[in-house]
Structure prediction request, 164 residues.
Amino acid sequence: MSEIPTPLERAAARNIVTRYLQVKPGESVLVEAWSHTLAMSSALVDEVRRVGGAAFLALEDDDAWWRAVDRHQTKALGRLSDPEWAAIGAADVYLQFWGPADSARLEKLGDQGVGDWGDGWWERWYKLARKTGLRGGRVATGWVTDSRVRHWGLRKREWMKTVL
Prediction:
């Protein structure tokens, strides 16, 4: 995927920001993206700014993530940094993309392969979100990857259009 948002990605981002999340002027929005979701992430950041909100884009790099997995450092992947906790606590809206992009590689690892990734922090995350009134969601375009396209025999452009 290109890092430049398509017109459809821009339209979807506008819909998410204005219709579903109803971002207001002055609100803070945290967008957590992966390398393969930069185009849509960029469109969301742009839309947040267009309506007068402040956007913060946090990037999880697929390659760096996989290097940590290869070094068996999955516990580090499942631990959020203090600055990330602070950003979540200060945000009014949170948007997260699915990742990593290589789903086939992830599925080959199974539950044991990623170990502690994702263990233990979800409960704290949701508790903080409830306490602060955080609203948001996960953006499904992160599922549209070359790996899944090959696995399921789909056409990437058509699938992305359907998701958007």
